[in-house]
Amino acid sequence: MSATAVDRVKQRFEELAAQGQAALVTFITVGDPNPDATLAYLHALVRGGADILELGVPFSDPMADGPTIQRASERALEGGMTLRRVLALVAAFRATDSRTPLVLMGYLNPIERMGYPAFAGAAAAAGVDGVLAVDLPPEEAAEFHADMRAAGLAQIFLLAPTSSANRIAAVCRYASGFVYYVSVKGVTGDKPVDVAEVTSRVAALKAVTSLPVGVGFGVRTPATAGAVAQAADAVIVGSALVEIIEQASSEPACATALEGFVRGLKDAMNAARAAPGAR
């Protein structure tokens, strides 16, 4: 029997924990610069060592994203990318990769237009493992949560440095898969990570949830990825990868660059976890 959606995420974290590793979660925007390139780039990320793939669903007003990912959304939308086409690309990826967990990150409007039950069913059928709807607060998530749970999809939420104890408790009540901690007070790719603060915050979160905790919104270098990996269960990298896509001279060169960059991140994370004194 094949793994369910949530099982695929859970199993990946369990496998990595048994090996003493943190998960590397990589983000790119679907359809940037075109769907065929995205499919090739996803496979390149996996070859480089990505443990979980996070796919950005293009949206016209990506409020949590900095300029780099905003431009990627604009390019994808100009190319005709839609939520249904995102799901079709997921299905194409699943035709040759049934193991790598895959999470959609986007905004609620396109999902609401499709309808929660229809979206959840289509996402699960395509091979999606979880969804992070950036602008869906836990206080309004009950209906969406019910449909996601019925479809076997993980529901992932963001927590920020400013999140209150009540908000943290609400998120942990609904969340599955993993909890996504935003390491900076700002948008994606906006500021460098304060590793000491992240370490403290992650420890506090792990005291109130048994879910893995991932850290993103500021991890851009192997050194930072390694430092964060010593505290977190997952390191999430997005803007640095989207910049490689934006600046690439050709799609084959871009796939090679993405694979190499991800390998450097993963090697640094593994080395940091293996160092004397690491957890």
Salient structural properties:
TIM Barrel; alpha/beta; nine-stranded parallel β-sheet; single chain; 279 residues; 13% strand; globular; 9 strands
Report on this structure:
- The chain is α/β, with parallel strands linked by helices and 279 residues long.
- The chain has a single domain, classed as Alpha-Beta Barrel (TIM Barrel), CATH 3.20.20.70.
- Helices cover 51% and strands 13% of the residues.
- The protein has a 9-stranded parallel sheet.
- Helix 9 links the parallel strand 7 and strand 8.
- The model has no long low-confidence stretch (mean pLDDT 92).
How would you briefly describe this protein structure?
51% of the residues lie in helices and 13% in strands.
How would the blueprint of this fold be written?
Elements: H1 5-18, E1 23-29, H2 35-48, E2 52-56, H3 67-78, H4 83-94, E3 102-106, H5 108-114, H6 116-126, E4 130-133, H7 142-151, E5 154-155, E6 158-159, H8 165-174, E7 179-182, H9 195-206, E8 213-216, H10 222-229, E9 234-237, H11 239-247, H12 251-274
Parallel strand pairs: 1-2, 1-9, 2-3, 3-4, 4-5, 6-7, 7-8, 8-9
Q: How much helical structure, as a percent, in the residues?
A: 40-55%
Beta-strand residue percentage: 5-15%
Radius of gyration: 17 Å
CATH architecture: Alpha-Beta Barrel
The CATH topology is what?
TIM Barrel
Spans of at least 5 consecutive residues whose pLDDT stays below 50 are: none
The CATH fourth-level homologous superfamily: Aldolase class I
Counting structural domains, the number is 1
Shape assignment:
globular
Order of strands, widest sheet: 5-4-3-2-1-9-8-7-6
Count of helical stretches: 12
| Overall pLDDT | 92
Tally of DSSP β-strands: 9
Summarize the biggest pleated sheet.
9 strands, parallel
